[in-house]
Amino acid sequence: MLEFLVFVAAFASLLAALFYMNSMLKGQTKPNRITWLMWSIAPFIATTASVSNGVGLAVVPVFMSGFSPFLIFAASFFSKKSYWKLSSLDYLCGVLSGLAVALWYVTKDPNLAIFFAIVSDAIAALPTLIKGWRNPETESVWPFIVGVFSPLTSFFVTSTWGFSELAFPAYLISINVLLVFAITRRLLHRK
Question: Number of folded domains in the chain?
């Protein structure tokens, strides 16, 4: 009966991505392309590994956590004024994130794939986390707010409480809480 929540969350993820892209195309939000690209690759790997390990509907929020960033990454090429300039740290995080993906490829173990996807995604999050902390006006908080709640639906539809079903959703909740805090902390201090 709670299965519908996964699809509601998937729709919410898509809506949040569309709002982010709209803000980006208006020049208000400035995405870090390396982060958004790696945020699409790591969940796709985790989705593939989870499905190969027999995970059912609990993988939908993980898939959407890759699909929505892919849309944002692709849309970032259509608005030149919305692009965040990359630094050495951004490139380093991109390389380390790619290395984590390569390590998964070598191991071929679904649980290690999920672990390396989490490591890759976390490293890829660093540039946006730092940018959100230093320049919160360059980010839109909505995808990250939805990113806290959408993975929660995995916990409602899981049939087993194993690593392959819940590790990536638990990580997604954690990283999105950090991103929401980084982006909104200045607003919280003003009150």
Answer: 1
Burial (0-12, 13-18, 19+ Cβ within 10 Å), 133: middle
What is the DSSP secondary-structure string of 126-155?
A: HHHHHHHHH-GGGS-SHHHHHHHHTTHHHH
pTM value is: 0.80
**Which tokens hold the place of 2?**
């709670």
Closest to 46 measured CA to CA, from 139, 92, 112, 144: 112
Reported as a single tens digit per residue, the pLDDT across 21-48 is: 998 888 888 887 878 888 888 788 778 8
- Rounded CA-CA distance 173/152 in Å is 7
CA distances from 31 to 26, 27, 73, 108 (A): 12, 10, 8, 32
45 and 113 Cβ atoms separated by less than 8 Å: yes
Report the Cα 96 to chain-centroid distance in Å: 16
In the numeric block, the tokens 């949040």 are attached to: 16
The parent domain of residue 99 ranges over 3-190
Which residue is listed with tokens 């954690």?
174
Amino acid at 11: F
Pair of tokens at residue 17 = 């991505």
C-alpha to C-alpha distance for 185 and 165, rounded to whole angstroms = 32
Residues 6 or more apart from 56 whose CB is under 8 A from it? 157, 159
